[in-house]
Amino acid sequence: MRIVLFASGEFAIPTLRSLSSPRQADHTIVCVITQPDKVAGRGKKAKPTPVKTEALELGMKVISATNVNDPEVIEQLRMYNADLGLVIAFGQKMGEKIRTLFPHQCINLHASLLPQFRGAAPFQWSIIRGEERVGVTTFRLAERMDAGDVYVQRWTLRKEDERACELHDRLAMIGVDAVNATLEILQENPGFLPTPQDETLATKAPKLSKEDGYITFNCPATQLSNLICGLWSWPGAKCMYTSQETGRSEQVTIALARVGDPSPAADPPGTVDYRRYVATADGYLEILEIQPAGKRLMSFEDFVNGRRMKAGDRFTSVE
Hints:
This protein has 319 residues and is of the alpha/beta class. Helices cover 24% and strands 26% of the residues.
């Protein structure tokens, strides 16, 4: 099967590598469409997408498209006589003309068990919402975001203390199997009809912003630990730490935490107790990793020792 891959982010790279392997004799990526290079860093240098970098190293044809729906882009793609458009972490909305350009139309790999968590940050929100079962879905691209009919789903249980960046990498690998299974279905049964999604079960996973990272300790410990894991590595769960002894405050990002003690907290939310646990709306939170503003990520033990943390110190919201 001849495939045009529409992809930009790192989530697509395991599938890109799999489909470019010599062992994949039945399928060929004839072209990769990706987002334009972005100017980044102090030197204002143009930085290609992760997929573009990987595809060029593999010797593939790459097109950087500002608007994939541009008639010139569509005509250029038509020349490849591809059977299928495969969309993974692409970053552009695709109109009807591009969705229906290929005989098998366009298939999207999404990092959730649709119809749950439709949107730009599915695996992050699955952690934030405390889902135990997570996974990926392949579906036929439709006009509404992530609402198309489903081909294949693969699920797994979320690991204890698993963060968004770690779940991202694990789901990207699981996605390889989901894509391969979908291609097998389309090759063996071209008339296969995917399953419509149950709209009554649909939930949203909107793009995260920096503001989503400002946390408060006036909520349950389980909710906080899920939020902290779901926000790492971006935008990160940010708050203020204040030493009772010195009065010094600094902004920190909590990178990893879990419920330390479910017993009702005897201290106001955000207060550090004698165990260096932090009081929440119900029990206590145990912080495991933390990053002071402008400094390296460190274990909470190193942070405690460096600041001589004592019971009564506080973690509060960023003003």
